Amino acid sequence: MNNIHLEITGVNMDFPTPNGPFRALEDVNLKVLKGEFVSIIGHSGCGKSTVLNIVAGLYQATAGGVILNGKEVIGPGPERAMVFQNHSLLPWLTAYENVELAVKTIFKGKKSKAEMKDWIEHNMKLVHMDHALHKRPDEISGGMKQRVGIARALAMEPEVLLLDEPFGALDALTRAHLQDSVMEIQADLGNTMMMVTHDVDEAVLLSDRIVMMTNGPAACVGETLHVDMPKPRDRIAVSEGKEYNNCRHEVLRFLYERHGKKVEVLETKEEGQKNDVVNFKQSKQINNKVA
Amino acid sequence: MSIQNIEQRIFNSEDFKNFFTELVTPIIGVLIFLILWSFLAPKVVTSLGAIPGPKQVYSQFLALVDEHKNERHKETAFYKRQEIRNSKKLAKNPEAIIKTRKYAGNPTFFDQILTSIITVMAGFLLAAIIAIPIGIVAGLSKTVYAALNPLVQIFKPVSPLAWLPIVTMIVSATYVTSDDAWFDKSFLNSAITVLLCCLWPTIISTAVGVTNVTKDLQNVSHVLRLSWWTHVRKIVLPSAIPMIFTGLRLSLGIAWMVLIAAEMLSQNPGLGKFVWDEFQNGSSNSLGRIMVAVVVIGIIGFLLDQIMLFFQRKVSWDKTVSLR
Ligand SMILES: Nc1ncnc2c1ncn2[C@@H]1O[C@H](COP(=O)(O)OP(=O)(O)O)[C@@H](O)[C@H]1O
Ligand SMILES: [Mg+2]
């Protein structure tokens, strides 16, 4: 039925440092199916971004490698688009021009000018940003910037979408809206998606599978967890279900019992959860309003 | 209690503060300077008489304006006479060969100002055209940077006075002037000396600006697989624009200082020569006229910087950043 789209095999990553090489990753293995949504979760600094950067082709693994569609990844390519944590829009270009930069490079000679324009506007519509096409990044909110970042990635028509803590810097309400957008987009386009996150609820809500990484140095994949909930998922309905809470519990247990760091980390994280609960209520109200 | 509150509100109000710091304080500063000047100047007596105060300097300025006007009158009169003479000649004999001669009067103070401005702009613009590309390449390539760095570091501190003889020798050896040549030798000497001195700040700042392109934007460039040229145009240049302008403004400031020195030393036309000539003249008015020149040199230097600031605002994408 589903076939393997992306395969990470035996990846080691050593970073050169003044005190000799620092081994960030050791023997990371992961198979991702076509159209699957995989979240990577783990403590800060364990090497999640490094994994994503290797898949993107920004870093070259010290050992092992990544195979996409049966071919080895040797550098960045248009079939793998990346959404960065801090949006990384060019501040001197408007939202439209930021997306245009990607479209012009990828579809040079393949699309006419008019087709490119339609395509840019189409992608901006997908992320609900068609009302602010000609605003510059400093004129729009953090959430809107991130939407443009997603539009830029989508406009590359990628097979694999890589998201590195895409909503980490956003407030919980904006985050919820963007999560909905991402779910919507994946339902529409069926891209394979890999997302790094440190938000347990986000991982459970969005993912088909959650990959939990052990703490660095020499981090690897500790456990993977299938999230067996039908799609499309409604955040409110799902959050009351049994599977959701089971998964959530599993991930928390992995992060804090088996690979917990210090008590203080645990405490701050607990606070974060409380906030999330509050925010769910808020977003419920919003949803009601919309409905 | 309530009065105190009101007072506090007045002194805390932003508008008042801005008005005070932006307008009143500078005026007070200048006034204090003028008062000190007019008070202290007469106490210093030189071989050319006492140092002139602000009043005398201002009257010298008016005298210079008059001289300029007179010179212009003479010039137009000269050309009118020549024209009449020539047309008479032609009326007598249509075949006659007529000569038009140029007016050979002395350049006035304001002519010297114009010469200096043209020369400094020529040297500076040429330097910018050379320095910005070099800076970009040096910023992008560690190898080029390593190769250039020692040269830049060594040439940067060289005084214009040391460059001048070399430039003069090379120009007179390689540039053969005829009467209708594009540039005078003296113009080339000054402009090239200016160029050599103001190249370095722009190169250094541009290179620094280019190396400061954030890792994020570099990653974007990689993921989008931008071509080298697009990368430079869309990411490197806009990122580096603020630093490029910092360099350009430093360079222009240096260029203006260097030019005046070069003109003084080499007797090339311009404000520097005006100052030197007055110094050699040694009349009772000389000190006053030199002081006029000093003030004018300062004002022009300031205006040049303001022009650069204007362009920086025009080009800069980040309108929120405060530019000084
Ligand atoms: N370019 C680099 N050079 C040296 N060390 C790095 C580099 N990138 C990441 N690291 C180290 O690798 C580890 C994993 O980093 P990262 O993948 O960014 O973690 P995270 O899981 O928070 O995304 C960290 O200890 C970090 O210090
Ligand atoms: Mg990270």
Low-pLDDT stretches of chain A are 261-291
Shape of chain B: globular
Across the major sheet of chain A, the strand order is 6-7-8-3-9-10
Shape of chain A: globular
What's the SSE pattern of chain B? HHEEHHHHHHHHH
Poorly predicted runs of 5 or more residues of chain B = none
Secondary structure tally: strands of chain A: 10
Number of helices in the DSSP assignment of chain A: 9
Strand content of chain B: under 5%
State the helical fraction of chain A: 40-55%
Mean pLDDT of chain B: 88
Work out the radius of gyration of chain A. 19 Å
Write the layout of secondary structure elements.
The complex is a heterodimer of chains A (291) and B (324).
Chain A: E1 4-15, E2 22-33, E3 37-41, H1 48-56, E4 63-68, E5 71-72, E6 80-83, H2 95-106, H3 113-126, H4 142-154, E7 160-164, H5 172-189, E8 192-197, H6 200-206, E9 209-213, E10 221-226, H7 235-239, H8 242-258, H9 263-290
Parallel strand pairs in A: 3-8, 3-9, 6-7, 7-8
Antiparallel strand pairs in A: 1-2, 1-4, 4-5, 9-10
Helix pairs in contact in A: 2-3, 2-4, 3-4, 6-8
Chain B: H1 2-12, H2 14-40, E1 45-46, E2 49-50, H3 54-92, H4 109-140, H5 142-155, H6 160-174, H7 185-211, H8 215-224, H9 228-266, H10 271-281, H11 286-315
Antiparallel strand pairs in B: 1-2
Helix pairs in contact in B: 3-11, 4-5, 4-7, 4-9, 4-10, 5-7, 6-7, 7-9, 9-10, 9-11, 10-11
